[in-house]
Amino acid sequence: EYVTAGAWDDTVYFFGKDNSTPLWSYATGGNVVSVAISADGEYIVASSSDKFYVFDKDSSTPRCSRSESNVYVTISAHGEYIAIAYSSESYGSGLSLSGTDCGDIWADSFSGSPTSVAISDDGEYIAAAGNTLYLYDICCTYEGLWTSSGGSNSLDFSSNGEYLVVASGDSVRLFATDNGTSLWTYNTGDSVNSVSISADGEY
Predict the structure, then answer these.
(1) Cα separations (Å) of 29 from 119, 170, 172?
(2) Is the pTM of this model over 0.90?
(3) 136, 145 Cβ separation under 8 angstroms
């Protein structure tokens, strides 16, 4: 029903699917790094170079925001969890799990400036990449399940959370999320900027 976009004019736009005129827009005052929307369209998250924002679909006024540096953000399908990867000179790099009030539920540090973050639709797993790829169980224990060497430009979970696809340099890699097994790797011969996986993990 809805589409959100971050544009080169430092603005977050929110559209209904049937009209090219935005329902609302919000100027962040900085480069829009990432945007995401919950499956029901109720919540929108966005990040600029120094802050992340949470919006309700009915208002261009953020319900909350928080200052961080080099921020990547995404939201679970049900809108309950927001994953934030960030870095700063003062605190180093970190990964945090938030609700729609922008307050931390859980946080951890990791190595290297963040380049991507993903959360499974069911809200059970979170993945982030800097110099290393990290995967955490956020359903029950908030424990780091496994790491893999090499960063990532893009991450995506299958809807059931069983698989994680990773763009790493010039390669596409598929992992089993429960144990970090690398199921296969394909070298494209050129830099891979984005990846996506079907809901059932078949494609």
Answers:
(1) 27, 33, 34
(2) no
(3) yes
